[in-house]
Known about the structure:
Largest sheet: none
Order of helices and strands: HH
Oligomer: single chain
Strand content: under 5%
Amino acid sequence: MSTCPELPRYGGIESEAAYAERMKKQAAYDQCFMKCARLSSQIQPRSFVPIGTPEYRYFKRNGQKAN
Length: 67
């Protein structure tokens, strides 16, 4: 998200040229935002702790359910 261009803000009354320029900037921002959203949705958090890992031994040692 930090690589996306700045989101343009509407500042009140604007000319047709200013509106067209803002819409171009909005489209560029939307395209970058959707690209980032698709990439972040592909990253899956680890939902289980594999047996034999230090994390598994930590949960087992402390009486917590690891999976």
